[in-house]
UniProtKB/TrEMBL annotation:
Keywords: Cell membrane, Membrane, Transmembrane, Transmembrane helix. The chain crosses the membrane at residues 21-44, 174-197, 238-257, 304-324, 344-363, 395-417. This is ABC transporter permease. Signal peptide: none annotated. It comes from Dyadobacter psychrotolerans. The lineage of its organism: Bacteria, Pseudomonadati, Bacteroidota, Cytophagia, Cytophagales. It is found in: Cell membrane. The keyword Isomerase does not apply. It is a multi-pass membrane protein. GO terms for cellular component: plasma membrane.
């Protein structure tokens, strides 16, 4: 045990003290926050006031086009031919022509511009015209504007879990987001840190350093020390990333809010909602009025069993990492260089990739047969079970999955140790699957 602790300490300190570790730990959150801050700053700072002229021969759209922070509409009474001749001198950005028979021929609307207009402006103008034509046709059919407004309802349901403890509010949106994030983190960590174990073993074997180490430490102790040491490095980096990201995001939000003029705050909010994780909110044009799902998720987090999710995440992170990193370590011990690892990587990486693919279907049906079996099998359970846990999993399924995962990584560690003890001192020989099978049963 003492030798394993020494190897763990060495592996942990060597990696944590590397400049690359420190740079990536700090650079990761900085790049994430800088990306969002830059998008918001550029989107707000690059907005110029555009003028749009409107020639409305139907006289149905007077004052229907509303001015915004970036758009200003002006109505012309002159004919369209005269407006087109004066367009270049007016300095306007666009000229909208609405013919008198627009209700019968809604596709006859034209937008003139010196250059192409943006899709946002084009769709916004079309939305205003479509809405007004719909209201006119409804009015002709005897449906008033008040009746139309009263008929528009926003249905919002509340999900409630029924159990022996009674009724408890739940949130499928929060469960989906948190389950997906946890599964993705485990998926990435298994690849990143499992590969680090394999490359570290291959490097020591190539440099013949392992011949010196193995004289003082048993092969099994060396392998376990490496696996656990790299796992602790991964946990350390995750904790620092979460802490730094939250801190930098709060700081960036405060700085941007203080320096932005008040009339641009709504634009900042709109940009944030259009970015990944956001949604189209109210804008100057129709089509908004959609609640931001991020706010809904944050408000529903309290309905989830956060201690259980965190505890299970830690267990499945370590369990999945131990299971796969042992196999990665066995591959590293069996080959002489990184190029030779490719033939053995496919059987190891396929279950991880399949797990992430299956997770997309499990999110749709977290209680289905596919979800059950893939959350029980040790090679897929670390990712799939973390997708299911926020939705609620029966205790017996969770216990069964954990027990099988423990047995699974114990089996893979035993298997990897049998290969590791022979392969770590094997040089200059191309290894096949048949050869690996022989190493397992060597005494």
């Amino acid at each position: 045990m003492r030798n394993i602790l020494l190897v763990i300490q060495r592996e942990y300190l060597v990696r944590v003290k590397k400049k690359s570790f420190l740079i990536m730990t700090i650079l990761g959150p900085l790049l994430f926050v800088a990306f969002y801050a830059a998008v918001i700053w550029i989107a707000v700072g690059s907005v110029d006031l555009k003028t749009v002229q409107v020639v409305d021969e139907s006289n149905l759209f007077k004052n229907e086009f509303k001015d915004t922070e970036s758009l200003k509409f002006s109505y012309l009474s002159s004919p369209i031919d005269s407006a087109k001749r004066q367009f270049e001198k007016s300095g306007a950005n666009a000229l909208v022509y609405i013919p008198s028979d627009v209700i019968k021929q809604p596709k006859s609307v034209k937008i003139y511009a010196a250059k192409n207009v943006s899709m946002e402006l084009k769709s916004g103008i079309e939305d205003v015209i479509e809405k007004q034509i719909e209201e006119i046709k409804l009015s002709e059919a005897g449906i008033t504007h008040k009746i139309l407004e009263d008929s528009r309802v926003n249905v919002k349901s509340e999900t409630i879990s029924l159990s022996e403890e009674g009724e408890k509010t739940s949130s499928s949106g929060a469960a989906t987001v948190i389950g997906g994030i946890c599964a993705f983190l485990i998926y990435m960590s298994v690849f990143i840190y499992g590969t680090q174990v394999m490359r570290g073993i291959t490097e020591e074997k190539t440099n013949r350093i392992v011949e010196v180490i193995i004289s003082s430490v048993k092969p099994y102790q060396l392998m376990m020390g490496k696996i656990i040491g790299v796992a602790l490095v991964g946990l350390t980096q995750f904790v620092l990333w979460i802490f730094l990201t939250i801190s930098l995001t709060s700081l960036a939000t405060t700085v941007l809010s203080d320096k932005m003029p008040k009339n641009q705050q709504a634009m900042v909010d709109d940009v944030q909602k259009k970015m990944p994780g956001g949604a189209m909110a109210n804008s100057g044009m129709p089509g908004g009025n959609v609640q931001n799902p991020v706010s809904e998720v944050l408000g529903a987090v309290n309905s989830l069993n956060i201690p259980l999710i965190l505890g299970c995440f830690l267990f499945y992170y370590l369990g999945g990492y131990l299971l796969y990193s042992a196999l990665f370590g066995a591959v590293g011990a069996a080959v002489d260089n990184d190029a030779d690892t490719q033939q053995f990587m496919l059987p190891i990486t396929l279950p991880i990739i399949f797990s992430f693919v299956f997770a997309q279907f499990v999110l749709r049906d977290p209680d289905g047969s596919l979800a059950f079996w893939t959350s029980i099998i040790p090679f897929t359970s670390p990712i799939i079970m973390m997708v299911r846990i926020p939705f609620g999993v029966p205790v017996w399924e969770l216990v069964l999955s954990m027990v099988l995962l423990v047995l699974g990584f114990m089996g893979t560690i035993w298997l990897a140790a049998r290969i590791y003890r022979v392969g770590i001192l094997m040089y200059g020989k191309k290894v096949s699957y048949k050869e690996l099978a022989k190493w397992i049963f060597y005494k």
